[in-house]
Design a protein that fits this description.
This protein has about 550 residues and is α/β, with parallel strands linked by helices. Helices cover about 35% and strands about 20% of the residues. The chain contains 18 helices and 23 strands. The strands form five sheets. It has a nine-stranded mixed sheet, with helices on both faces. Helix 12 packs across helix 18. The N and C termini lie far apart (about 65 Å).
């Protein structure tokens, strides 16, 4: 256990302060100094995982290589650190209690009364130490979801308190992210909310080592002194975290505040070389100094909450920087799109992405969007359901299959061009039973997809129950919608392309999940390049 160092990131005053971004930024800085770092998220909700949650409740569900449905913060961890996470990197209250109750039913507690302390806290600690015991990491950063003081967070906070005694003070560190609000009427920053938040941590037996203070304004020295005095934290460990222009500025801002140096000192780790963040700076340079600009529509069901498409939005940031292009992303609710207004809504767009989703709501708008992009020659990128909508539209309007649909939307469709996968037909449990995680795909040589990847064999992450119906494969291919990506084990169609179109690709998988800051996803890179070419084709 003690071979790894454990950092815990807690939050106070309010939620949504950016614990995930602070954790990822710190992880990036430590990684850039040569340390092996990973990050995990402990979520206090009772769902086993976020797989059955509406995106409006919790944002997108992020899927890992090993098929875990996890919190969207794991996307930040992977994008910043450039590493893969796993089932072990996200643990919920639901999973903790499920494991303990299952063990109790199996008679593993030898007749003892099962209690929150020690049994629930021991299970939380077991999950915390899982990553450290692999020997793969020098530092484990653990983000505790929610706010200090929340009833559901109490067992996690108690487990963190116990960890200090399990691993020793030199292997343990708590960073508390808090809010220092500015009262405009009084013209001053107020420290009292932070004092109360730290007091709640102290009551739980935890003294934070570092305060990271979110604020719209600069923290003057007198405010830092006050926080230091009343929160029992050294003044050098009161870190300012002002609102940033982009989340990708945060590692540099935290470096400027010497957050990584304070962490290394407190954990008694050697201050290895200065962090090597030149590539990160180059990325920011391209991001902030674009040489071109495109307008791309993201058509989806949940656009009122951008976090529902977090990975897609960030993949556009990475791909835009890779093309030195500013991507103006316009989020359009698919329910508002129809055959009558599609030209009005999408006429100014240089590219169109139809987003993933489930259920019938808004499906006609997605189909109308796919039709418009096909007929007008606008670059089109369909992801998961976005690919399926392109298939349905093509079946209806090119193949002439009246009533063609997915059996998800119409169980009695005369032409089920998208159908439920065989291994999904007799399932009774909804959670964790989709086709999840990484699967291989073989791309057709010379296809746009293969040219984008620069290779013919790829692996991508999935999250779906329905698939292209191979009964219609030859009809589609003959008419010009070509299956250029096939799973070699099942024959499942993974990628389709239109022959006579500048750039029209549908992917059954989720390429956005593998886009990284320093490694933009090739399909997003090429899609944005196609949008640039489309915009300037007549100029």
């Amino acid at each position: 256990m003690a071979s790894a160092k454990y950092i815990f990131v807690t939050g106070g005053v309010t939620s949504s302060l950016g614990k995930g971004i602070i954790s990822a930024s710190l992880g990036k800085l430590l990684q850039a100094r040569g340390f092996r770092v990973t990050i995990q998220k402990l979520d206090p909700y009772i769902n086993i995982d976020p797989g059955t949650l509406n995106p409006y409740e919790h944002g997108e569900c992020y899927v890992t290589e090993d098929g875990a449905e996890t919190d969207l913060d794991l996307g930040h961890y992977e994008r910043f650190l450039g590493i893969d996470t796993s089932q072990s990197n996200n643990v919920t209250t639901g999973r903790i209690y499920h494991n303990v109750i299952t063990a109790e039913r199996q008679g593993k507690f030898l007749g003892k009364t099962v209690q929150v302390v020690p049994h629930i806290t021991d299970e939380i600690k077991r999950n915390i130490f899982n990553l450290g015991e692999t020997g793969d990491y020098d530092i484990i950063i653990t983000e505790i979801g929610g706010c200090v003081g929340d009833i559901e967070s109490l067992p996690f906070i108690e487990a963190v308190r116990q960890v200090r005694w399990d691993v020793g003070p030199n292997n343990f560190l708590v960073i508390h992210l808090t809010l220092v609000p500015y009262l405009r009427s009084a013209g001053e920053l107020k420290t009292k909310p932070t004092q109360h938040s730290v007091k709640q941590l102290l009551e739980a037996g935890i003294q934070p080592d570092i305060l990271v203070c979110r604020s719209e304004h600069h923290l003057p020295n007198d405010i830092r002194k006050k926080l230091s005095l009343f929160c029992n934290v050294h003044i050098n460990s009161v870190i300012e975290a002002r609102d940033a222009e982009t989340i990708y500025d945060v590692p540099l801002l935290m470096r400027k505040e010497k957050l990584d140096e304070r962490v290394l000192t407190k954990l008694k780790l050697p201050h290895k070389n200065e962090p090597d963040i030149e590539q990160w700076k180059e990325f920011l340079g391209r991001l902030k100094n674009p040489t071109s600009e495109v307008n791309i529509a993201l058509v989806g069901k949940y656009v009122e909450l951008p976090d529902a498409y977090k990975s897609i939005i960030e993949a556009f940031v990475h791909g835009g920087a890779g093309n030195e292009c500013k991507v103006n992303l316009k989020l359009i609710p698919s329910e508002e799109v129809s055959e009558e207004n599609v030209q009005q809504l999408l006429g100014e767009m240089d590219g169109i992405l139809v987003a993933p989703g489930f259920g019938e709501r808004g499906i006609s708008g997605k189909i109308a969007t796919a039709c418009y992009a096909r007929e007008q020659g606008v670059p089109y990128f369909g992801i998961c359901l976005g690919m399926q909508c392109a298939v349905i539209e093509f079946a209806r309007n090119v193949l002439g299959l009246e009533g063609a649909n997915s059996t998800e939307m119409d169980a009695n469709t005369p032409h089920p061009v998208i159908a439920l996968m065989e291994d999904q037909k007799n399932l009774e449990m909804m959670g964790g039973t989709m086709r999840l995680g990484s699967y291989p795909c073989e791309l057709k040589k010379g296809s746009k997809a293969a040219n984008a990847y620069g290779k013919n064999k790829i692996k991508e992450r999935h999250r779906h129950r329905y698939e292209f119906n191979n009964k219609y494969l030859k009809d589609f291919e003959k008419a010009g919608m070509v299956p250029v990506g096939i799973n070699p084990e099942t024959g499942l169609v993974e990628v389709v392309e239109l022959k006579d179109h500048p750039w029209y690709i549908g992917a059954q998988y989720h390429p956005e999940l593998k886009s990284r800051v320093l490694e933009p996803h090739p399909l997003f890179l090429r899609f944005i390049k196609a949008a640039i070419d489309f915009k300037y084709k007549d100029k």
